């Protein structure tokens, strides 16, 4: 051979030689992009190594071998774990651009992270000033986008000032398929931190410059359907013909707090098993943990585990319906909800929604309720916030006139995501692009993982579970506390220089514990709203009450003792002697009217100079509020001002007593009284008081008394709670009217049995039954009695009491211990020739609140 081939070769390694990748593709992440397969082929052709996933296991197990994950979405199980391992998660376009440039492109510009909302925008520029181009380039890069030097097929957007721009003209001639936008579009997106529709900002036909703008029309929102909160507990999912392969080789644990009936739980479990999944009994062995609330040791363990995905029932049903895995933290209502709402939200915070329609409106209504606030369809002057999709409506005009906060839905979503009410002064929450209905971007906010770690996912030893004794009687919910979540409280130190006075002292049980802010469940409310008669709790409460009664007298005694001459030889000897006598240890202090009046005059401590002046010339007395001649008795069910603040409560009660307003704990034997509450509440006090048909006022009545030192007109403070009426299914005014007719004998025809361990305490329900004229008996395994037929003696007072004479009721919960009693109760009833009715507490509470005997089949327990 005349010619010998040179013994040389190209030493340049393939472009993707160091890339070891996995692909998140069907069936885990279905993708219809025809270029997806070709991108993967190009990657392997140029030296990359594909790491195969186990087809029977949807999880990535070999992170140490992987450098890149190719996908079009972050919606896969191991996304967070991949980031923790510093693995690049990129879109297929990263492959194309790297091949075109003959170098590996920066993976940051190709992330599918929805937070970088320009991640799929490739921008070309028209004839813009250089300063504007630089500003937009910086903006587009910061939010995951990229740009090209000249208009080409790679560009997705062309930004120009008008249709006469030469690049716009060139795009028209070349039939370029991208979108032509004004620079205003980038500004609006940046203000909202969301990508909105380009349509109103189209260079050729810009809606934002039209003279007659009108209301912006709602546009399609592809995300919102998958973000909705479902109500799966109402009915079980279908099991026939459904195979949820999304559960393949997944161990799923259903938490105890889901509140599922047996039929629904069995159906869900069957779907998991049919789809190749398994049921886990412990958190440590589970891949998916399904619970309702963000609390409890199981939730914390699951949330802290990198191998367990935490979601709620709504998310679980989404998986079943779509047969596709999604990340529950990407949708606010797919993650367990805070059981007691978010701090500083509560029933006192009312939110109305305007200009959102369809699924977007439904989603926001659910979000309001999950946050712990009160949703109201009808906006009134007392409404706290108006959440609106644009600022062109009559509701918005009324809100401006009434000084109601006007915000877009991003404020609500961020408040929920961060577990903290966001400031309405943030311009992002009050920005309304002129031709955009913000309903198109509802449902895109994810749960903040930082907020979860800060408020919920704390190590068990770092938090203390709040016990029932930490709450005072008659409390329905926790109002915004003076102690924010995470603040540490130390026990009272008498020697401390900054020891709080009697009006600010906090009751503390131990040193250095976390005091989480929370609201109480309905069962806890019933348990707390009781007299605690005969218990150690009662003794403690009584002692504390006496201490607070004496606190003001003791302080006054110390003040008088410092005067020249001391207490016995001061300027008001008789009054001082009274104070000294009343302040003796062991004596129950009783304040005379004269001393009370004097204390009112001396609310602010006098300086020494004022004391001298008062001896030289008569001191001008403050004008006192004239006391009412009679005693106005008031039963208070829930007053947020007093929650966890017994010293303030006692001080307020003293002030109210001076006005003639006496706060009573139980129904008076005779005479009229007021019922005071911030909303309709299923508490012992509220329901018992309702049986007497009292005047019902809102807690603003007490606010007025304390602020103005006068008793206002009752008619100025009616309790109006349309939401509560709708939820419970009755009208408060009608119940009061019926109560007048019933005269406390609604349940006279009934003798009602109740399990000993009923949630909410037997004593509370017994009080409700007896307040309505019924007879209540405890039923347990030792109960032995012969029940006579429940015949009324005499005539039925009115139609409200009409009831079948042969029915015998047992009010029971669903615990195994209670269920075991059902057969025995049924046997006892049948021996007495009566029909056994085993019912939920809802039956009793609804009947008592409506003040009429009515029936709903859902109230009856079905015997196993």
UniProtKB/TrEMBL annotation:
- The annotated regions of Acidic residues compositional bias extend over 600-609
Indicate, by first and last residue, each region the UniProt record lists as having compositional bias (Basic and acidic residues): 563-585
Which residue numbers delimit the BRCT domain? Answer: 11-112, 112-203, 242-333, 348-429, 656-719
Q: Where is the composition biased (Basic residues)?
A: 587-596
SMART domains tied to this protein: BRCT (SM00292)
Region Disordered, annotated ranges: 477-516, 563-627
BP GO terms, sorted: DNA double-strand break attachment to nuclear envelope; double-strand break repair
Q: One Pfam family, short name please?
A: PTCB-BRCT
Write the signal peptide boundaries.
none
InterPro entries referenced in this protein's UniProt entry, alphabetically: BRCT_dom, BRCT_dom_sf, CellCycle_DNARepair_Reg
| An annotated GO cellular component | Cul8-RING ubiquitin ligase complex
Q: Which domain of life is it from?
A: Eukaryota
State where composition is biased (Polar residues): 491-502
Annotated SUPFAM superfamilies: BRCT domain
Q: Which PANTHER family match?
A: REGULATOR OF TY1 TRANSPOSITION PROTEIN 107 (PTHR47667:SF1)
The name of this protein is BRCT domain-containing protein
Q: Which organism is it from?
A: Microthyrium microscopicum
Upper classification of the source organism reads:
Eukaryota, Fungi, Dikarya, Ascomycota, Pezizomycotina
